[in-house]
Amino acid sequence: MKLIDTHAHLTFEDLENQVDAVLARSIEAGVTRWITIGTDKEQNEKVLSLVDGYDKMWAALGYHPHYANEITDADMALLKEQFGHTKIVAVGECGLDYHYNNVVAENQHRLFRQHLEIAAALGKPVIVHTRDAFDDTMNILAEYTGKLKNVVIHCYGGDKEQTQLVLDRGYYISFTGTVTFKRSEALREVAKMIPLDRLMIETDCPYISPHPVRNARPNEPALLPHTAQCLADVHGISLKAFAEKITKTSEIFFRLLNYD
To answer: Are 39 and 62 in contact (CB under 8 A)?
Structure first.
């Protein structure tokens, strides 16, 4: 079994000082490739430095919607320049987050569109963050129909109706350990709807440790097989078969075969 952690924050404080050990445990657990995600200027710089040191690690760069009030035109110009790095495989994470209601929605919309413009211009897939903002997220994405290479909704938590819309649009869906939680029966029912050629998995580490290791702090890529096993059970197939199918999906989405 060889899995890909498609969304990790290996430069966040809980993990950045132990990356070698984290990756050693990850490889031992069968998680052998990683996409590490930038969320702000500092993190984007750290991500670029980190991926240069590991053959099987790639980067996605973006500004999380939490920072939409403060991102300047100069920041966006810097982001565009950074996409000249050869190991950047996606734009993001980017999107909308209304959960805390402390970032002006119009600023979030503008920032999201700026990311989508970059993705369209470069032909890069997009990693979308949406929290309590599904309708607005989908409406803005609709403006770019036919312009974007691929879209994944990460840390997915949508209901069946929302999921059908995501699938009808041709987007991908990525699950974190949330799908393993005992209270997540409805989300597991949603997961049954998703063809394995449109499904990916992620840790979103250092957050969201999966059941039965929810008390593990920080979360890390070595724990991703718990999420894989849960979804394999949901789809009624072996872990090995599930891993093979979703690994292929991830390779296609991020075009990782171009790097082997």
So the answer is: yes
